[in-house]
Fold Glycoside hydrolase family 71 protein.
Amino acid sequence: MRFTSWSSLAVGLLAAMTSAAPYNYESSVEDRQAGTGRMVFAHFMMGIIANRQSSADYDSDMKRAKAAGIDAFALNVGTDDYTEKQLDFAYESAAKNDMKVFISFDFNWFAPASSAAQVGGLIKKYASKPAQLKVDNKIFVSSFNGDGLDVAAMRSAAGTDLYFAPNFHPGQTPDAKAVEAGFNWIAWPNNGENRAPQPGKNITVKAGDEAYSKWLAGKDYLAPVSPWFFTHYGQEVSYSKNWVFPGDLLWYNRWNEILELGPRFIEIITWNDYGESHYIGNLASPHSDDGNSKWVNDMPHNGWLDMAIPYIAAYKAGQKSPASFIKEDKLIYWYRPTLKSLDCTATDTTVDGRPNGYETFEDSVFVVALLKEDGKVTATSGSNTKSFDAKAGASAWKVDMAVGKQSFKLGRGGKEVISAISLRDVSDKCPCGIYNYNAFVGTVPAGPSDSLGPEGFTGFNKGLKVQCEAKPSLSSGSAPKPTSA
Ligand SMILES: *[C@@H]1O[C@H](CO)[C@@H](O)[C@H](O)[C@H]1NC(C)=O
């Protein structure tokens, strides 16, 4: 999340973790078996779309999310002067496209101790819009941070019944009595201090589920799901941030964990936070640039949304496997564009060079197979090739990452079914001179090409130490063309 200082929340969470005990999931088993009432949200950053001109600029996001089974966008707002104009557009577009939205207040910007009336006022302004998400007939409201908010004063200012699901922290708000549900933001394995795990300080996402569930004591849990985390802002901006959380197969593993856990709500973190590399929306979604295009250009993530589709359907149906929701054979693959051993320090844009936590990544190319029937998955990374006997349903595989072309195929009964060569090679050169630990995500069969629009490049050259063209290159014809494998 942009501009975020996480230290306070992470410390609060750590305090909660130390007393975490196994959660008794029995309480919600009937709900889960019925497979009803579950909802999927995606966190949507309003801070990078100030340049949108009309509700039509939101339509493709709304359509894509709805088609994937996402029920509502959590509109993350700060106190910017464009906030209400953009909320108007978003609510209007959602209504047109039969989507729901709700406001997620970013308490890095709203001061929890003094903003209850302001927050309540904004809720009131949007509460009666047709696209407003309601849960149990109440206006749904969420947050990023916000411990210390006067919830009663906020409710009173809103003047309507609220279903309040904030990102409060068990360690900072010991009693959950003021909320209807709790939202846990920590979607990545971490060290309890807002950085990647270290030996002896290794907190899983599941431990966060347990801490929240214990705290909520039967109230609804809004669980996080995120594919990745890499942020690499250098001195060209005022909020230097340069770290990763372990990614690798997180997206696949976490979805399987979600099917087991079966919380009432889940939130995908995020739809469009390009700066932290956890977007699953497309690059073409209109947005401005705070410098993240250095590590976002030519890095589509649409395959991650594709992978989520059968998982979302299975989650809503209360099933433990996505298998019966897989409608066609598909491979989703991803990898970083360079090996960890590549030294970019001389030309990198940050003060500290390699992102903190980089060593928690594997040098692997990951493949998730979504298969209608058993098949043989073959992945080739440079000179490394591996084949796997994959069962019908979803399965994950990996091959050691090597410089060169990346190709993938599915075979059955000795015949090739589908194959593709990735548009992006693994390179032995630093991309635009920097450490880029974002993921390139592709699919077989290949999806439509996707690239940043012109406004997504405005911060591209700021801070770069090497000449690098501010434009998409993968769809321009210079990339390797798929051939039969
Ligand atoms: C953290 O624990 C996971 C298993 O839960 C393990 O795979 C990983 O290597 C550990 N990381 C560190 C830095 O100890």
Confidence is low (pLDDT under 50) at residues 1-36, 476-485. Residues 302-317 form the longest helix (16 residues). The chain has two domains: 7-321, 330-448. The radius of gyration is 22 Å.
